[in-house]
Specification:
The complex is a heterodimer. Chain A is built from four helices and no strands. Chain A is mainly alpha-helical. In chain A, α2 packs antiparallel against α3, α2 runs parallel beside α4 and α3 runs antiparallel to α4. Chain A is elongated. Chain A starts with a helix and ends with a helix. Chain B is mainly α. In chain B, α1 packs antiparallel against α2. Classes of the chains: A mainly alpha, B mainly alpha.
Chain lengths: ~160, ~90
Amino acid sequence: MSEATSFLLTFLREAWIALAGAFLAFALLAGIAQILRVSSAGLIGANLWVWESVSALAAIILLGLFAYLGVPQIVGALGSALPNGGGCGPISELGTLASGLIGGLAALRMLKATFTSILSASLGGASTFANALTECGEALFGMILAGAAIPLAAFFLGTC
Amino acid sequence: MFQPIMDQILTIARDAWAFLAGLLIVVALLGGLYYVLQGTAGAAFGGSRMTSMAIIGAVGLVILVLFAFLFLPQVGEMLKSFQPKPPF
């Protein structure tokens, strides 16, 4: 079981590193796309377009800071709060596997949500900052629910 | 495991960056030309507001291009230094 946990967590860690790298690349692309939009909108006198792009640029920087500084802190805090499974035997090992996987998947989901927003902004669309935050909230809520479910499952199935 | 995919994505992103930077230069040059034309025309028939707006526009355009080429790479470096390790 521990080998499976370590294999899955290694896979998720590699996915995290790849997603974080791609996030940076697309954040920069989104930034230059929005600046191009500002300059072209300024030339044709489209004030609203300029303000949209300026706010999108601010949202990109905020999203970058949130993804790189906020998400790891949130996941770290919730991961340390997740119970590692009570009881003994296979249920305890399953609890450890589950808490590790829940933390990893929630972290990846949050990063994926911010990445999707950045990708949308780099393609010239709206940065959908609110959608990213909503998805992060869903992942957090899922982690909290799982944190409550693991000890319950251990209590009913694996107490000894 | 994800490294070959990342390499492909980064190659595409580098190409896209070069394309967008080139496009920005073209737009900025066209904009500069437009503002010069506007300023000259304003100065020719005494439209002082037109001339001053053209000068402000040209200065704004230069600031925007400088912002794109100096500030964005710095933001990238900053974010790169913040790049988090997996928190799990």
